[in-house]
Amino acid sequence: MSYKPTLLTAAIALALATPALAQDNAPAKTLDNVIVTGTRVADRTVAESQSPIDIITPEVLEQTGTTELATALTRAIPSLNFPRPAVTDGTDAVRPAQLRGLSPDQTLVLVNGKRYHTTALVNLNGSQGRGSSPADLNTIPIAAIERVEVLRDGAAAQYGSDAIAGVINVVLKGSDSGGSVSLRGGKYSAGDGAQYQLSGDAGFKLGEVGGVHLAAQAGHQNNTDRATPYNGRVEQRYGDPEVEQGAVSYNGELKPADYLTFYSYGMASKRKVTSNGYFRAAEDNRNRPEIYPDGFLPQIYNESEDVSWVGGLKTYTEGGLNIDLSANYGHNKLTFDVKHSLNNSLGLNSPTSFYAGALEVNQYVLNADFNKQLDWGLAYPVTLAFGAEWRGEEFKETPGEEASYVNGGVPSANGSLLPGAQVFSGFKPSDSGSFDRNSYSFYADLEADLTDKFSAGLAGRYEKYSDFGDTGNGKLSLRYAFTDKVALRATASTGFRAPSLQQQYFQSIATNFINVAQPDGSVVATPFEIGTFRTNAAAAVALGAEPLKAEESTNYGLGLVLQPVDGLYVTIDAYQIEIDDRVVLSENLTSTAVRNYLNGPGGFSGIGGGRYFTNAVDTTTRGVDVVGTYRWALAASNLDLSAGYNHNKTDIDKIAANPAALEAIDPDAVRIGRAEIGRITKGSPQDKFYLGSVWSPGAWAFSATATRWGEFTTFGTTEAADQTYSAKWTLDLAATYKLADWSFTLGGDNVLDEYPDRTVAGAGTRSYFPYSATSPFGFNGAYLYANIGYKW
Predict the structure, then answer these.
(1) Which residues make Cβ contacts (< 8 Å) with residue 601, sequence separation at least 6?
(2) Percent of the chain at pLDDT above 90?
(3) In a domain, 223, yes or no
(4) Residue-wise pLDDT tens digits, 654-689
(5) Closest CA to 644 of 150, 295, 276, 213
(6) Are 357 and 90 in contact (CB under 8 A)?
(7) What three-state secondary structure class fits 675?
């Protein structure tokens, strides 16, 4: 790989020409906040950071009507994309977020600096992040959050796998006093999607040597529906799902001596989500009119159970070796039930609800981290950090009840057989299994202020996995302050992302009936097993599947930090991220040539093809972030202004040629199709800009944020089916009145009731979906809300 400095220079020039200032999206006082992400120096602040980092405060998270952490963050971080897909099976329940236009699983999530576990879900349908299994940010209760630190830089050398696009570190409240309670509710202007949430937190002392902070929240969200009626009748539902959720957390410590601290935190949440499939009309061959005379809308009911726990101890000796030993456990289980459905092949004996199976992940981590200040005769001490990590991971897939996948043998109206619960066929016993791996790593990190103006950091990490081998990565960080008002910073690093166990071992095979010509000229509907195969499944290997290997990245960053006048803080950071061997999900390989081979020379009777994960794509992402804040002190109030801009573009450098095995079977096979190429290169906005303000006269606070969401494109199987959606502006407004310890807020998100462009309807008698599920701000329109809060 080669670094192209002219491109970064051009990006810097573009940023300097941009008339927007942007932000760490909090008042200017956050510049003095000590950060814990991207550095192991104990007193490094935001303004001194060698890498771009944002501090998102609870006040910022509360300035929107949302009850979801990921949605709140996308309003505050220019390079974060969090669309609201619909009719995408489990992805409706566990929506992925993207940082800098990259895959959701290429961003590492930490809680209190410790690795957070991923979701069990594999995003398989046509949403952004197809094929990924990232961490689910919405399992973390907002009521528990002290702040969120977002490192916009590659950090695999510091934290290990996944930190290619950056790191999101959620810091939990830990004070042993104070607290709050709030009640929030709202509804969309269209009259649906009503939401409410009750949340609270409180700190308590534990004797004379410790404290604990507790938090909890519970809420409900009704579904929204923006589907187009057909012949005056609303048959389909298209929008946000119905959600019932609750979460609890604790964060505490005991300090029996000045040199010793025991700490622990834990969280548990449950989310129940009902999402919609595609409507089956009464005359549809998949329907049984005797059961559903008017047709039916199948629904998926997901329950996400999430648990995390960390415990450890720290020792501190001034000038000595500081130690941090910890154990970390994470668990996510996602169950699938199907309602208002039927298994057509069971005829009139079909149930109308099914248990379709479950996915589960478990993560176990042991960390030993050491830190010491060294006197090398420099103006300031050198910080040496080193340590080791062991991580065990487990993925389980359990089958559904027999009726959810069985072929009952009863033909449909046109004579075909349609087995399995409709909208989501249950996992079969042959799909199920338990899979695990372990890894260990060692790292070392040096960081120092070499002079009053110049600081540098050097990090290295070695990691070895039991399933695919080892990898070594490094990072160099530099910062030079020309004056107190101007500083230049740069980073260069290599990184990696280990393929998840979900990508290696998830399997979902459904029976499809395909018309096959017979020797006598007749055509017979013949059952074939088609689906997502594990990479080591014999049928997948026959189609060219190979063991997955780690994605490898090379990251470069160059930035300016400007503080030209008191209260004004601006950062301009350009970046280039090259990724080799990206893990992507192939297209369905189901051509006649593939089917004939599998059922003939291949020896796989009844297998009609499918798809699998593969390291088939190399990409380069280039972009620039401009962020900054300005606090204007007025006579009797403050005016906090903020703005943010991100531009990024991903190009595909290479798509690996079809493997020899697949080429021999079907020379015309397309393993990576246009739709997937479009998702990677143009599926998320290449530009995002916002301008915000908070005016605080007396007991009042008025906030306004205008956001421009850039254009994006969805790709079809042919160029004629592509559609580019134009950029749109949304406006969020809120007013808060404080009365002693109480606060009362009225607000609106997207108050101008903006919608994305309407989707051009394709061929067919029914076209229910007027908007693209890829829209970065959704397609629900204006949302109005109220909040009552009390703090002590």
Answers:
(1) none
(2) 74
(3) no
(4) 999 999 999 999 999 999 999 899 999 999 999 999
(5) 150
(6) no
(7) helix
Judge whether 664 and 43 are in contact, CB under 8 Å. no
Average pLDDT, the chain: 90
- Angstrom CA distances, 501 to 91, 174, 390, 504, stand at 18, 33, 16, 5
Please say whether the beta carbons of 415 and 408 come within 8 A: no
b/e sequence 436-468, b meaning 16+ C-beta within 10 Å:
ebebbbebbbbbbbeeeeebbbebbbebebebb
pLDDT score, position 1: 39
Instruction: Specify which of 118-127, 329-338, 528-537, 633-642 reaches the highest per-range mean pLDDT.
Output: 329-338
CATH number at residue 787: 2.40.170.20
Amino acid in position 473 = N
Q: pLDDT for 417-465, tens place per residue?
A: 889 999 999 999 999 999 999 999 999 999 999 999 999 999 999 999 9
pLDDT tens per residue across span 376-412: 988 888 999 999 999 999 999 999 999 999 999 999 8
Which tokens in the block code for residue 272? 């129940």
**Token pair for residue 213?**
């902070």
Domain tally, the chain = 1
Residues 6+ away with beta carbon under 8 Å from 592: none
526 CB burial (10 A radius; 0-12, 13-18, 19+): middle
Backbone angles phi, psi at 9, to 5 degrees: -60, -40
- Residue numbers of the domain that contains 178: 5-211+230-359+367-451+465-791
Which stretches within 627-759 are classed as H helix? 660-665, 674-682
Residue whose structure tokens are 């421009």: 708
Q: How far is CA 124 from CA 72, 128, 582, 587, 652, in A?
A: 25, 10, 16, 11, 21
For residue 457, tell me if it sits in a domain.
no
CA distances from 715 to 144, 652, 712 (A): 40, 15, 10
31 falls in which pLDDT band (50, 70, 90)? low
Q: Which residues pair with 108 in a beta bridge?
A: 167
Q: What is the pLDDT of residue 4?
A: 35
CB 83 within 8 Å of CB 150:
no
Using an 8 Å Cβ cutoff, are 575 and 556 in contact?
yes
Q: How far apart are the C-alpha atoms of 356 and 336, rounded to whole Å?
A: 5
Instruction: Tell me if 459 is assigned to some domain.
Output: no
CA distances from 60 to 54, 69, 576, 617 (A): 12, 11, 29, 37
Statement: residue 765 has pLDDT above 80: no
pLDDT of residue 308: 98
Candidates 223, 130, 128, 78; CA nearest to 774 is 128
In a domain, 217, yes or no: no
Question: Strand 728-739 vs strand 637-655: parallel, antiparallel, or unpaired?
Answer: unpaired
Burial state string for 400-432 with b = 16 or more CB within 10 A and e = fewer than 16: beebbbbebebebeeebbbbbbbbbbbbbeebe
What tokens were used for 300?
């998926």
Count other Cβ atoms within 10 Å, centred on residue 84.
Answer: 21
Q: Per the structure block, which two tokens stand in for 113? A: 């600096």
Look at the pTM and tell me if it is higher than 0.85. yes
Q: Which are the contacts of 526, defined by CB distance < 8 A and separation ≥ 6?
A: 513, 514, 515, 516
